[in-house]
Amino acid sequence: MAPGWSIWIKVLAEVQRTGRSVVRVRRCEILMFESQEQVAFKLESLLEGGNGMVRTLQWLALAPHLGDSVMVSSAQREVLGTLSPSLWTDVDTLGSATRLELDALIDHGLVVMEAPAVGSVAERQRRDDDRLRAAHWHPLGAILHAFTRWDSVDAVKNTQDSGTETAAGMRDVLGPPPAVTRSEGQGDAVALPHAEPDAFDALLQRRATCRNFDDSRPLPMALFTRMLGRVFAAQAKIRVGDDLVFHKKNSPSGGGLHPMEAYLIVQQVEGIAPGLYRYLADSHSLLPLTAPDQPLRDFIMESVGQQHWFANAHCLVTMVPRFDRSFWKYRRHAKGYRVVTLEAGHLSQTLYLSATDLGLGAFITGAINEKHLERGFGLDPIQQGALAVCGFGWRAQHMETAELDPLEQVWQRVG
Fold it and tell me: What residue stretches are annotated with the Nitroreductase domain (predicted)?
C-alpha cells in the first residue's frame, strides 16, 4: 500500500460508520521528546579504520497515557509539533506531508481521533488520553511518574552484577562519595548544647530498618489493627457541604487532602486470611481484593524487586496515592507531584515509630515493580499509582541480613 493511503482508509471507514463527512484529530495532551543515542558494534566500522562502535541518534516520544516510549522519525516529530493538543483538526485540511505520517501516529496513540471505532485500539487510546486530561497532571510530573515505573526488575541481581552489593563494593566501583556533610559558611560553626535524652529520644534511637523478619509466629490482631489505626486511619473528619470531606490523620498531607491509600499484602496475621486487601481509612476496615494469579510469596518477591529480606514481613503495605484527588486542588501545579511523594515519607516515619513503640520491625523501599503492583491491585496508573512499599512484623531473633544499628539499640554484638 502506498504511503499515506492508510489514513484515508481510516477516514473513509469513519465516514461510513458515523455518517459524518469530516474526521477530526488532535495531538495527545502531554507529549515530550527525548533524543537518545544508541551505541552498537559493527565490524564494518572496524575494517574501515574506526573503533567498531557506531553511534546513532533516535527520537523517543514520551506520552504518559501510553506508559511506554515510542520511537518516531524526525518527520513525525515535526508533524506532532504542528497539531494542537486541545483543538480538533479536520484531516482533509492537513497538508500532504502531514497526512503521510498521520496513520502511524494514530496507531501509536500520539494522535487521537475524535470518534474512533467502538472497541478499537484507537478508542482505548482516546479514553486513556481523556483520563489523563481529567486528572490535571502537570506535564513534567506526569512524565516523571509514567517513565520511572519498573516492571520485572530484579534489584538484587542488578547490584550483584554491578559489584555494588556492599558498601565496600560501592566505594570500589563508584569512587569516593560526596562528603557526608558540608561545612562551607561564614566564620566558625556555633556549638550547640546537647539536650538530656528522654523517652522519645530513646524511641527514635531504636528506630532501624528491619531486614530480618520472624516468619515462625503470626502477628496478633491487636498489634496489626493498632498499626493500621495509628498510621493510616482517619482520626476525625471535617465536612464542608455535601461532597467535600477532609480527614485528620496522624501524619501531615498537602492541602489536607490525604490522597495516599494503603493496599495490603497480608501474610501472617491472626484472624486475617493471607491475601490482598485495601484498607478503608474512614471505617477502619479491610476490603478483600482479587487474589493474585501466582503464589503470594512470588507476588511479594516480584513486588519488592526480589529483595528477599523484606518478603517475610507479616504485612506489606503498598502506598497508593490517588493523584486525581490531590490534583483536584493542585491542577497542573509544578509542585503537585512533589507534595504527593512527600506524603510517603511522612507516613513511613509514622509507621516506623509506631512499630518501634510496639516492639515490631518495619521497612520502606522504593525499589519496587510498580507495573506489577498496578496489575495485581487493579490500579489505573493515570489516576492512582504504586509509590513505595512498606511493611511491619516481628523482628527475627538473629540477624542474617545486615541492618544499620551502630548504637546497638536493636542488636547487641556478641563476642
Answer: 205-394
